[in-house]
Write a structure and sequence with these properties.
Blueprint lengths: L3 E6 L6 H10 L6 E7 L5 H18 L4 E5 L2 H5 L4 E4 L5 H14 L9 H25 L4 E4 L4 H11 L5 E3 L3 H13 L6 E8 L2 E9 L2 E2 L1 H8 L18 H7 L8 H4 L1 H14 L3 H16 L19 H13 L4 E8 L12 E9 L2 E4 L7 H23 L2 H10 L6 H14 L13
Helix pairs in contact: 1-2, 1-13, 4-5, 4-12, 4-16, 5-6, 5-14, 6-14, 14-15, 15-16
The structure holds 6-O-phosphono-alpha-D-glucopyranose (G6P).
Length: 440
């Protein structure tokens, strides 16, 4: 094989320059020959704009990567080596509904957690399963690297409802936590190691090390300072309760705030929705500004403004992963993969987010054993939710969706679950054909 063929589905995303920058930086070790950016007709204008920027970036860097832009997914997939997915079914308008509708019922409205996460899964999973079917036909040996949220639920669905084993779910939360610990302790990122285990957006740092020395207690101590900064751009940070975190004894990820500080996060969301709009409304403005920048024919680098997005640095994770598979590096990276017994109590065939050795044959999860007692229950509950949600996405069965909504820990009762479910099903009808099959 002479060079690598990468296909990025959702290529018109404002995040694409991150990925392009990552491939340019690594070109000597990771010789990408073709990068195919694929989008849907509604995304064509963005695809043209971001694609033109990608071409300028490649040209300026002087690397021989051919950038192809297409609306024809099948054409792109033929003969691919790696397929990355970063799409948003229903675009940001659907996310706005995911955030706003639950808030009306006094429930967290969030992209990947609670009712919003459920509906993003219901819209996304059928599309991902279609992509898997096309990959079986057009590029059966390619790796599917999924960033599309909710990444844990999507990986679970691929593992349970397709024969595809070459699938990896990827997220920037672990790399963000690593950078956060490095910044808190004032050391270089390369010196930090974290033992990650859990699920996507539900991952814990079981222990943190600097140069091999366990610094978990020190990090927890600093994390309880207000505005410690260990969060993502999209998640409000108000420190942690000192006694609680010390008793917990592990590092939470930024998304745990929705579970351990639900009332505070809800109040903040409600206030923000009134003042500046929900996160997706803010992101819509940021995107419009980014695309204005991208249109500038003199721009040939990733603009720093992209770091305002919560997904900043995801290309580090993506490119490191692809590089380690391609070069059989056998280094350790946290990814979403088949548990295979690594975390006790979670089914072997379920997706978990865990440190893995990344080799040519894919991720090999490192054994964790049992999670600490205080976090076991929440992780199990979210896994149950993800499994039921994936089943609902595949079957389009109302009762299964109601079950998923009700068992989500952010939803207070079956009655509220039903109200939110009914309103959201109606609001997202266009993107949920499986729930609205014509009566024959
Ligand atoms: C985090 C998460 C991503 C998520 C992003 C949202 O980084 O890990 O999964 O998509 O935030 O960021 P945004 O700027 O869209 O709110």
């Amino acid at each position: 094989m002479n060079g690598i063929k990468i296909v990025t589905i959702g290529g018109g995303s404002s995040y694409t320059p991150e990925l392009v920058e990552g491939f340019i930086k690594r070109h000597a070790a990771l010789p990408v020959r073709e990068l195919w950016l694929v989008d849907i007709p509604q995304g064509e204008e963005k695809l043209r704009t971001v694609g033109a920027l990608a071409k300028r970036m490649v040209e300026k860097a002087g690397v021989p990567i051919e950038v192809h832009l297409t609306l024809d997914r099948r054409e792109a997939l033929a003969g691919a080596d790696f397929v990355t997915t970063q799409m948003r079914v229903g675009l940001l308008d659907a996310r706005i509904k995911d955030e706003k509708i639950p808030l009306k019922y006094g429930v967290i409205g969030q992209e990947t957690n609670g009712p919003g996460g459920l509906f993003k899964g219901l819209r996304t999973i059928p599309v991902i399963l279609d992509i898997c079917r096309e990959m079986e036909e057009l590029c059966p040996d390619a790796w599917l690297i999924n960033f599309t949220n909710p990444a844990g639920m999507v990986t679970e669905a691929v593992l349970r409802y397709t024969d595809r084993r070459k699938v990896i779910g990827l997220c920037n939360v672990p790399i963000g936590m690593k950078m956060g610990v490095a910044a808190l302790l004032g050391v270089e990122q390369e010196r930090v190691h974290i033992d990650f285990a859990g699920l996507n957006h539900m991952v814990f740092g079981l222990a943190a090390y600097v140069d091999g020395e366990n610094v978990t207690a020190q990090v927890i101590d600093r994390l309880t300072d207000e505005q410690a900064g260990m969060t993502m751009r999209n998640i409000f940070d108000q420190g942690w309760d000192k006694d609680f975190l010390k008793a917990l004894g592990v590092l939470p990820c930024p998304y745990h705030r929705y579970y351990y500080q639900t009332d505070l996060m809800l109040a903040h969301e409600q206030e923000a929705a009134q003042k500046d709009g929900t996160r997706a409304e803010v992101v819509k403005k940021v995107e419009a500004e980014l695309f204005e920048l991208y249109k500038d024919p003199n721009l040939a680098i990733k603009p720093p403004q992209l770091e305002q997005r919560g997904g900043a640095y995801y290309s580090e994770a993506a490119c490191n992963l692809i590089d380690s598979i391609y070069n059989d590096r056998r280094d350790i990276q946290p990814v979403n993969t088949r548990n295979n017994g690594a975390i006790a109590g979670i089914p072997g065939e379920s997706a978990v987010e865990v440190n893995c050795v990344i080799a040519k044959e894919g991720p090999i999860p490192l054994a964790v054993g049992e999670l600490p007692v205080p976090v076991q229950g929440l992780v199990q509950q979210i896994k149950s939710f993800e499994r039921v949600a994936a089943q609902a996405a595949v079957t389009g069965d109302y009762r299964t969706a109601l079950l998923a909504m009700t068992i989500n820990p952010l939803v207070p009762s079956d009655a509220v679950a039903r109200q939110i479910l009914d309103e959201m099903l109606e609001a997202h009808k266009e993107h949920l054909p499986q729930f609205f099959k014509p009566v024959s």
